[in-house]
Amino acid sequence: MTDSKTRAAGKRERLIGAAALLLHKQGVEATTLADIAKAADVALGNVYYYFKTKDDIVAAVIEEHVRELHQTLAAIESRCTAPGDRLKGLLQALATQGELVARYGCPHGTLCQELAKRDGDLSASAIMTIPVDWAEKQFAAMGRADARDLAIDMIAGYQGTALLTNTLRAPHLMERECARISAWIDSL
Amino acid sequence: MTDSKTRAAGKRERLIGAAALLLHKQGVEATTLADIAKAADVALGNVYYYFKTKDDIVAAVIEEHVRELHQTLAAIESRCTAPGDRLKGLLQALATQGELVARYGCPHGTLCQELAKRDGDLSASAIMTIPVDWAEKQFAAMGRADARDLAIDMIAGYQGTALLTNTLRAPHLMERECARISAWIDSL
Question: Is pLDDT of B91 > 90?
Answer without folding.
Answer: yes
